[in-house]
Amino acid sequence: MSLPPGFLDELRTRTSIVQVVGRKVMWDTRKSNQGKGDMWAPCPFHQEKTASFHVDDRKGYYYCFGCHAKGDAISFVRETENVEFMEAVRILAGEAGMQMPERDPQAQEKADRRTQLAEVMEAAVRHFRLMLKAGAGAAARDYLAGRGLDEAAQERFEIGFAPDTWQGLWDALKGKGIEDDLILGCGLAKPSQKGGKPYDTFRGRIMYPIRDPRGRCIAFGGRAMDPNDNAKYLNSPETELFDKSRTLYNHGPAREAAGKGQSLVVAEGYMDVIALAQAGFCASVAPLGTAVTEHQLAMLWRIADEPIIALDGDTAGLRAAHRVIDLALPLLEAGKSLRFAIMPEGKDPDDLLRSDGAGAVQKLLDQALPMVQLLWHRETEGQNFDSPERKAALDKALREKIKLIRDPSIRSHYGQAIKDLRWQLFNPRRQGGGAGRWKKQEPVRASTKSSLLAASREENQVELREAVILATLIRTPSIFEEFETALEGLSCAAPHLSQIRGAMLRYDPHGPKELFDHLTADLGEEAVEKLLTLPHVALVPPVRRPGDIDIARMTVTETLAKLVTEQGLAAEISEAEQDLAGVADEAVTWRLSEAAEARNKAWKSQNEDRTEYDKGDNGAQVSRSEKERFDALLEQIGFGKASDR
């Protein structure tokens, strides 16, 4: 449906975004300025304690400095109510007293039919509820009681029963004057192939209504009472109301519970969801008999940033988890991921709740694994990597999976996490007494103390370089977006630098001049001035001459390159030192001999190409400490000092 020109502008003019958002948040009165329409609150889109969600009533926009959610009143209603664009417009227009334009006749006719179908579905819900309470539902009631569902639970989830008769529902609905095509259109009955009356889709089954986020019944799930039935669970066929790939069981109640802080849990079936909700895990949903789809994943992420996939602890459950990983990898965004809680072998959430209680389930949810660990588990479980070829095959498989991630920052972090896990697998420091036992911590030796001192100096040098990068971007913010991804990769171990980097990453670039104002508002003017006036920072050309884009870009690029080189060298030296803890083998000897020439060239280049900010004693001292560690390693295996080669 198209809207006439100016309709949305008029709607935005009449709508106060502060009032719209105010229905979902608690304003921070200390930070907010009601008179200016400048309001702050904890973000409704992610869990936080501080007020980083900003609403500007005059401009009509919101922005979160934590999760970067942004938009206007229409997008806010869409996200919080989980409705389509036109539905959000309709909601706001009703509140603003504006008449929605008339739909075209065909669209109106289609909407009217959907309304009629929904009414028929509600009539079916009432019929199945009645049948459960009747004599024919005795066995079904006993089954539900055995599963721990009392009458209150049955009422809460509107559970019903379809007797094992061919036209029980059909006759009941026809008795209410409902037309044939509406009953068939709901998927509640099927045409007879023999020319007789249509027959009921669901027979001899416990019935679970499936509702959309707005609460309308759009389908049913039926569990067979006969254990020999070919289909233990049966869903409604797809209809004008129901698309199972875009539907989640218990969507509406789960969304509301997640909004109050509960973890969003994705289980496998209706009974798991019902059992979890009964035990207090109300933010629980389930796909409908199929693997999670891309549409369902998007719906989950609209509810919570990190849904927990709680799957059965068997082979089928793990396979389902692996399918979800392959689906999710290309769709990952900063702050949007999945975690996995694998149930004990042979149990589903319902089983675990009945055997061990809610505490056991909560413990599993608290220990849910990040997706990268399950990806690693899939590629390595039960494998033997005792040859270079097998290790190479593992590397190739993991690279192919990581390449699926579209977001460059997330792809980089996945690569680092896989690298760390690979190191743990192929370089275990084990005690000689048996596999799987980690070596005990040995006393610190003199050489180790020296290495720690050198490491401290290296960390100081890294801190200096990071400070220069941050200061340069602050002074010339027009290049900020070019280096935003690189900024995410800085370690920033120093607390004051970490604070500044975090505030910069929360910045949504509206214009170069606003970065400094944003930082001072977020951290205070003193924190920023302290960085810019550090001796080694204040002398850097782009800090002394702010706004010179070429100098700023060159400085950041070169400083980042030096950080990468120095950190890579430090990692290689550390790795070699660990390998040489015993007797050096041929592989380590060859690695160090090959590295000697490369390192000499790197140090020579660094000494010849120093920028103004690292000419002091501290920079030279760090280079010497690294060089001394490397020389010591070369001498240890009989190659002489790097400087002598």
From TrEMBL:
Binds 1 zinc ion per monomer. CDD domains: TOPRIM_DnaG_primases. Its cofactor is Zn(2+). Keywords: DNA replication, DNA-binding, DNA-directed RNA polymerase, Magnesium, Metal-binding, Nucleotidyltransferase, Primosome, Transcription, Transferase, Zinc, Zinc-finger. It comes from the Bacteria. Residues 598-617 have a biased composition (Basic and acidic residues). Its EC number is 2.7.7.101. The keyword Metal-binding applies. It is an enzyme of class 2 (transferase). Residues 598-627 are annotated as: Disordered. It catalyses: ssDNA + n NTP = ssDNA/pppN(pN)n-1 hybrid + (n-1) diphosphate. Belongs to the DnaG primase family. Monomer. Interacts with DnaB. Contains an N-terminal zinc-binding domain, a central core domain that contains the primase activity, and a C-terminal DnaB-binding domain. NCBIfam families: dnaG (TIGR01391). This is DNA primase.
